[in-house]
């Protein structure tokens, strides 16, 4: 695609206030592939004012008409699937098959799901002598990450539009080209001017300005827990609503009697997907003591299939590469046993990290507690089922997880006791209509499906 050197505000591409730009780097070869504007507080203000002006008419638009625009948006994304996949591969580094199937494919399904929800959702109901109305919150400031750049945009913008909100999007500075393609899709879908606006820029500048802007009614942020806390504090000072999808340190619990080979192989694949840059990745594999050595051997064999530059792409930038390699070094220093990979870069060019597996990891180690966000798996030993539950719940996070058992009933019973937002049972498939979000420091609120739509609605009751 040809990168835009402008912002998308009030239905048109317009020059940024300042002249500073952000270089977009291909993490596979470290070459600059584009430059985009580094938005300022003034750019954010213009976008918010446009969204504010467009809100009354869009909120008053019948849900069926909003649904039609979302259907058109899903169609526009589907028509751009190839260029979206190629762009995501270029700026994120994910292997092209992953970009085609997941990065560009899933968002089409999610956008279409919100078209259907907008058409059939009950935006009012009668309770006793009250009519209860579900109304759009207002202007949404959406701040999205780089790891799933299109999915995270659609997971915020589609439900906001379905609810009747208007949106200002500030995408991650590493993957702004995908956001520009999304803006083009909103043009093709016929969204009225100001309903969707795009400001590219740095988080501490444009992101902070958006979170703090008095014209923004709700801030939806996906990213690190540390930044989420800052945004929550900023929004809280203005009594502004927030939706925060933050970090994770998810447990992959393999109970006695489970299919060990399947659980280990799927668990390794889960973490290696997207080079480990997935907040819900099952980065802690918990195995009973009696089968621990067998699990370690299975994991060591499984990870050999994930070759850097082929099945595993680079990390998004040099900073992220250094961070993940630092965690691997820390794991060795704290006494974990390295059975695959290591801190050395596997290729001379590109921000690659070797797919890495640690054994003999204890719950108190840094690599078992902190989110690494790279292709690193820690295998922990437990003594009995209660010990497995204690270890699984022993982090500040609670985003996702997996349980494997001899039957679904046993796995579900264990999953009910886990302090986490979603759990896959014996390899259960991803459901784009199920709520996604975390417990504890993994976030506030939910995305996807009707629960995701609810984040952008507020409630009014009329008594008569």
Automatic annotation (TrEMBL):
Keyword Oxidoreductase (UniProt): yes
Top-level taxon: Bacteria
Keywords: Oxidoreductase
Residue ranges of every copy of the Aldehyde dehydrogenase domain listed in the record: 13-461
Catalytic site positions: 245
Presence of keyword Zinc: no
Protein family per UniProt: Belongs to the aldehyde dehydrogenase family.
Protein's recorded name: Aldehyde dehydrogenase family protein
Organism: Streptomyces rubiginosohelvolus
């Amino acid at each position: 695609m040809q990168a835009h050197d402008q912002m998308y505000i009030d239905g048109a591409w317009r020059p940024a206030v300042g002249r500073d730009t952000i270089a977009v780097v291909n993490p596979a070869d470290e070459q600059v592939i584009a430059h985009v504007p580094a938005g300022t507080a003034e750019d954010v203000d213009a976008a918010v004012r446009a969204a504010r002006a467009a809100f009354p008419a869009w909120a008053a638009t019948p849900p069926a008409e909003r649904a039609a625009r979302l259907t058109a948006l899903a169609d526009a994304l589907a028509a751009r699937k190839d260029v979206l996949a190629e762009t995501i591969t270029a700026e994120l580094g994910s292997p092209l098959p992953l970009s085609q199937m997941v990065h560009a494919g899933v968002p089409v399904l999610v956008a279409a799901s919100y078209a259907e929800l907008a058409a059939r959702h009950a935006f009012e109901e009668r309770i006793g002598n009250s009519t209860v109305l579900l109304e759009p919150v207002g202007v949404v400031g959406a701040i999205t990450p780089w790891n799933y750049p299109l999915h995270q945009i659609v997971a915020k913008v589609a439900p906001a539009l379905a609810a009747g909100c208007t949106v200002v999007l500030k995408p991650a500075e590493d993957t702004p080209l995908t956001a520009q393609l999304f803006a083009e899709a909103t043009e093709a879908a016929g969204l009225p001017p100001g309903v969707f606006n795009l400001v590219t820029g740095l988080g501490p500048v444009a992101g902070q300005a958006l979170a703090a802007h008095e014209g923004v009614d709700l801030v939806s942020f996906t990213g690190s827990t540390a930044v989420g806390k800052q945004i929550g504090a900023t929004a809280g000072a203005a009594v502004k609503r927030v939706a925060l999808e933050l970090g994770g340190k998810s447990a992959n619990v393999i109970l006695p009697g489970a299919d060990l080979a399947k659980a280990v192989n799927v668990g390794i694949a889960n973490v290696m997907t997207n080079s480990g840059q997935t907040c819900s990745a099952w980065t802690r594999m918990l195995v009973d003591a009696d089968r621990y050595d067998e699990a370690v051997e299975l994991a060591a064999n499984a990870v050999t299939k994930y070759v850097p530059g082929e099945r595993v792409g680079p990390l998004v930038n040099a900073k992220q590469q250094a961070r993940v390699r630092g965690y691997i070094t820390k794991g060795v220093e704290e006494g974990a046993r390295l059975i695959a990979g290591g801190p050395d870069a596997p290729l001379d060019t590109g921000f690659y990290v070797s797919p890495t597996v640690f054994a003999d990891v204890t719950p108190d180690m840094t690599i078992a507690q902190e989110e690494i966000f790279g292709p690193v798996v820690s295998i922990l030993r437990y003594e009995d089922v209660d010990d497995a539950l204690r270890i699984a719940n022993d982090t500040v996070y609670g985003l996702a997880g997996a349980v494997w058992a001899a039957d679904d009933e046993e796995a579900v019973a264990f999953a009910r006791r886990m302090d986490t937002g979603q759990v896959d049972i014996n390899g259960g498939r991803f459901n784009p209509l199920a709520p996604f979000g975390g417990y504890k420091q993994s976030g506030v609120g939910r995305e996807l499906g009707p629960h995701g739509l609810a984040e952008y609605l507020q409630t009014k009751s009329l008594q008569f």
